[in-house]
Model the fold of this input.
Amino acid sequence: MSYDALVVGSGPNGLSAAITMARSGSRVLVLEAAERLGGAVATEELTLPGFLHDTYSSVYPAAAASPVFARLALHRHGLQWTHPGACYAHPLPDGRALALYRDLDRTVAGLEGHHRGDGESWRRFAAPFMRQFGPLTGTLLGGFPPLAGAARLTAGMRPAAMLDLARLVLIPAETLADELFGGDGARAWIYGSAMHSDVAPTAAGSAIPAAYLNLLGHGVGWPSPRGGAGRLADALVSCLRELGGELRTVAHVTAIAAERGRVVGVELQDGERLSAPTVLADVMPAALAMLAGEALPARYALALRRFRIGPATLKVDWALDGAIPWAAPEAREAGTVHVGGSAEELLTAAASRGLPERPFMLLGQQSIADPTRAPAGRHTAWAYTHGPHGVDWGAERDGLIQRMESQVERFAPGFRERILARHVLGPAELQRRDANLVGGDVGGGSNSLDQLLFRPVPSLAPYRTPLRGLYLCSAATFPGGGVHGVPGHAAARLALLERRLGRLAPRALGRGRLSRSR
Done:
């Protein structure tokens, strides 16, 4: 059977790619190996009946800010955002907490109340970026190279502010904290945001995720879909079907077929072969190298295999007999809680080569703002922590769960008494459920400085591969992890452009150094 385009994988990027192709009039088919669509955007009753848990990702500031999703009018397909009272809270050892609010003034007041001058310092830093939030988002959530967004940003900001933004890409979050804050609480607050990435706050490149996540909070909040993360996947699937796109589950692609240097389709595990002149792969780089085999130049395939994944993850979901009894009121209204304590404790956890005694955790409590997630009076919560791949996760699992729950109990006395049931996903289970979560990496590859911009290989067109008609559109490409659909959209736009340009496209648009080898 023949199509104009085949998309391997139905995560947000795969669906975004398929929607972009379908909107152009292409006949497109999405092939998903699993029994359900959506990749790492899913909601299940993991613990007890009636308790809806987001299996993987849950909180979507990048989706709310995504220029790609904004054009799809996903509210027409049932997507509703729910916003907690605070984007996130960071409980401190003294029983207080600092929070990020959508309202800049309220955030400033909280920071100022902990240490005089810290709030106003944050205002001076954040305000210029918030005045140019649209161009900023167009730059950091644009396809690579993000020239259009950068041009708009440059036109609207003073040169000094542009230099500040460029500098954020290079400096550690520790340096940013030193320059902005005098109090330990605000330093812990900014470190917690930095630790959403796999780059330690003391390492170069950690300042940009710390700053940008907070700016996203002011710009669009940190919302979650009403009814569960799976509603976002449902909306994307509905949008694609409305455009005439087709989808198949339990369709395991085992090879990408090529003839004379160009893609001609894919082969499935059951032996079926599907034909198409364009294939967009929402897979990790090593998987792409395996699927395409000898059709890719050896040097390019080696570069794909060398792409570094991020740390392993252990995630715990809880069904609770009530809301988590946080000591700090700010944490009781927050959708996300950074559980780690003081700035020094966070730096210690980040520097650990094993699993620290007091792990840093991201904790979500979506039922605070969305009562559809649990039976009346009950609640759901989840938390995950990272660790190195060399750890014996099977042996460490139970002890780590106990330490994670002790960390929550430390800031919310009585938490354990409210646990009705728990569900645990370790690194192996995460990868078994979703092949893109390699080794339990939930970020689409390491965000270390050398992989921050040039993903997965140095190239001005990272979505293109040397095999004509084959494109990579996963979170391993710019701008990286997060649910925003940008890589899928960017890869599909490039595919459509090159289809129009025909054989002149590769030379006209240029290739990166690694992409030229054949």
